[in-house]
Amino acid sequence: QQQVKQSPQSLIVQKGGISIINCAYENTAFDYFPWYQQFPGKGPALLIAIRPDVSEKKEGRFTISFNKSAKQFSLHIMDSQPGDSATYFCAARFTNSGYALNFGKGTSLLVTP
Amino acid sequence: ETGVTQSPTHLIKTRGQQVTLRCSSQSGHNTVSWYQQALGQGPQFIFQYYREEENGRGNFPPRFSGLQFPNYSSELNVNALELDDSALYLCASSTDSNYGYTFGSGTRLTVV
Q1: Best CA proximity match to A2, nearest among B53, B110, B42, B1
Q2: Which residues of chain A have pLDDT under 70?
Q3: Which of B4, B48, B104 sits opposite A99 (nearest CB)?
Q4: Cα dihedral angle (B104, A28, B52, B46), rounded to 10 degrees?
Q5: How would you class A71 by CB atoms within 10 Å of its CB: exposed for 0-12, middle for 13-18, buried for 19 or more?
Q6: More confident residue, A29 or B61
Q7: What are B90-100's pLDDT values in tens digits?
Q8: Which of A57, A71, B55, B100 could be B50's S-S partner, Cβ–Cβ 3.0 to 4.6 Å?
Q9: Which pLDDT value is given to residue A95?
């Protein structure tokens, strides 16, 4: 079953706007929550990640907000640019299965000029 | 530029055949994982190797097998190919102390 649920499936944002992608997880044993960015024909690239003992992490225009009690985390892309147009995946790591990453189904982001 | 190299980039096989996909990890990355990504989906964990031993496996049948070599390279073997095996196969590597994984660009496998 899908251990990490991601929404929305697709998102269109104007240049300069804020892109927000949400994820929810079920298993409280997850201990690492990364976001990956994937361009067509490429593998996923690590964008930013957070541990459950931190509520927010910011790197440049990218921010993860983490709500442990609600078992939710989100990615905010500030000042979105056309070059940010890609598919974004949230993931969660479950240490009892050899550090496997459990991915969401992805969000296709289009930033219009 | 990714430090993980996969070959070949594209491959077409016939149902029932066997295939071997290859991955070359960054030096010092003693953990390698393989993922299957169907079109429009997130990657699904196949298995992981740590210092040449399998230490985790996802919900994939035994006809999916792998090897990791001392030179940080690895292989994914799939026997008795099925049409549903058509996907992008991704290799990812990491070190002991690095929670993040570096992914290769993948091998696009088409089974006809």
Answers
A1: B42
A2: 1, 95-99
A3: B48
A4: -50
A5: middle
A6: B61
A7: 999 987 656 67
A8: B55
A9: 58
